[in-house]
Amino acid sequence: MPDPRVAGRLARWRGGRLLHPRGLSFTGQVELWGPLAVRMAGGAGRCAGTVRLSRGTPTPDGWPDVLGLAVRLHGRAGPFDLLLSTSSQRRVLRHVPIPRYDFAGPYGSLVGYRIDNRRVYVAARSSRPLGRTLDEVASVADRDAACLDLFAVGGTGPWRRFGRVVFGARLPAEVDAALAFDPDGCRGSALRPTGLIQRLRGAGYAFSQRSRGAAADQTRLP
Question: InterPro entries in the record, alphabetically (predicted)?
Answer without folding.
Answer: Catalase_sf
